[in-house]
Design a protein that fits this description.
The complex is a heterodimer of chains A (166) and B (182). By secondary structure, chain A is an alpha+beta fold. Chain A is 17% helix and 32% strand. Classes of the chains: A alpha+beta (166), B alpha+beta (182).
Chain lengths: 166, 182
């Protein structure tokens, strides 16, 4: 259990398609614990995916608790091998990413999403998320496929220099 | 390394970016930030390039004379003082907001809004305007990315912005362009 350094561009590990977990064992749970620890140690961060801490597995944590843009909120949501099984309602939002420091971008994403995956206990879970939680989940699922928000910006004019977080 | 600001403007055609950046490659200059777009058929390039110590702004300007002549571009080259770079490093501290302004086209919209922002000490980081709508009813649309210093209250700025917009007969709104780290 540890706070891990977060990889930044141009680290090639951010651009690979992560491997499925298949079965949630202690190794997978340890990865999840590190994800949670690292998320908690980072100001204003609501989501983190395993590739961002250099681990080649399909796992993420999202927690939008208390965020003013959140509607649905499932608290600390950890999923392995997540799969988006339903999505609709496009919405535009500005995203930043720990792995892409100093820049933000406007990204259109579905605002209602159904995602399915494995829980820490190894069972299957199906979650309906919307608004900000949906955006966060989709952003993290993208990481598992080697995609960054830069791959999805709404137009070339939609990339901005980010203010410094202090 | 020293930074040099380069602008080039000319009638749009394929090959302008390739020709201008070819000069940078020949002189081992690295493009730092750039913005290039077509404005009513004119291709406008603005770049800041990092030049090695043995390449002066004057040398670059002379070398850019080739593509400038071939492609009928107006080119300017200006060495940047180090102080500008310090200012650039500081600019990121303020809150970012987006200002949208749109309405019937008339002279003075940009000036009216920009003057208000200047009076308030609000820095414009990005601005683009387009005339949209039909030929009979042109609509002017402007989007600005601005940095609000700590002392400026967004609500009172929004009120003043509404007053200025009303005076110009256009609509204006202010909304935070804060990003979420996901």
């Amino acid at each position: 259990m540890a706070v891990r350094p977060v990889l930044e561009l141009p680290d090639p590990r951010l651009k690979r398609v992560a491997r499925s977990v298949g079965r949630v064992d202690d190794t997978a749970r340890a990865v999840a614990a590190d994800l949670v620890d690292t998320l908690r140690a980072t100001v204003a961060c609501v989501g983190l995916a395993a590739p961002q801490i250099g681990v080649d597995v399909r796992a993420f944590v999202v927690d939008v608790t208390g965020h003013r843009k959140a509607r649905s909120c499932h608290g600390e949501l950890v999923l392995f091998d997540p799969e988006v099984v339903g999505a609709d309602g496009p919405a535009l939002g500005r995203e930043g990413c720990l792995s892409v420091p100093h820049y933000t971008g406007d990204v259109v994403r579905p605002s209602r999403v159904v995602v399915r995956g494995l829980t820490l206990q190894g069972g299957e879970r199906r979650v309906e998320v919307d608004a900000f939680e949906a955006r966060a989940v989709l952003h993290e699922v993208d990481h598992l496929d080697g995609l960054l928000f830069l791959d999805r910006v709404a137009s070339h004019e939609a990339v901005f220099r980010r203010k410094v977080y202090r | 390394m020293s930074h040099v600001a380069v602008t080039a403007v000319g009638s749009d055609r394929p090959g302008i970016v390739a020709a201008v950046t070819g000069v940078f490659v020949e002189h081992r200059c690295n493009i730092e930030d750039s913005s290039m777009t077509i404005l009513r058929g004119q291709f406008a390039m603005m770049l800041v390039v990092d030049a090695p110590p043995d390449v002066s702004a004057a040398q670059l300007e002379a070398a850019l004379g080739g593509p400038a002549a071939d492609l009928e571009l107006v080119v300017t080259v200006r060495p940047l003082p180090a102080a500008d770079e310090e200012a650039a490093a500081e600019e990121t501290g303020d809150d970012r907001w987006t200002v949208s302004v749109y309405g019937a086209d008339r002279p003075g919209i940009v000036h009216g809004v920009a003057s208000l922002l200047a009076d308030q000490g609000v820095n414009i980081a990005d601005l683009s305007t387009r005339v949209i709508g039909s030929a009979e009813q042109p609509v002017y649309a402007m989007v600005l990315e601005v940095a609000l210093p700590a002392g400026v209250d967004p609500n009172s700025l929004a009120d003043r912005l509404a007053d200025v917009a009303a005076g110009l007969g256009v609509e204006a709104s202010l909304h935070p362009s804060d990003a979420d780290i996901l």
